[in-house]
Predict the structure.
Amino acid sequence: MNDFLQPADSDFRQAQARRAPIRRATRPGEAKAEAETLGSILARWIKRSGLAHAGDRERITRAWEEILGHEAVHTRLDGLRKGAATFVVDSSTLLSELNNFRRQELLEGLQARVKAPFISDLKFRLEKRA
């Protein structure tokens, strides 16, 4: 009579399959797992999300302007990802110069000024300004 209130067997099995596994108690002789602190969880998340380097954007931008000089007005820092700082350039001529002739000099200058070992590569892409 109340069949509509009971879950179908297939629904129940699917829900159990989606459920996270239950941690079992440690067996005798097994090392107990220490509970992880919220601080360590947050620190790991911040590092993975890239927020750890958010304060470095301004320092990188200032150092970039010092290294590049007056040509810096034609570029902007677009992002930091997986060790690469990506800059948008509004001139194909400047893009070619930065990519082919000045990349290593600029990378070493940034690493020295910002003390940023997390920057291991520079990438440039063209974006015309309107």
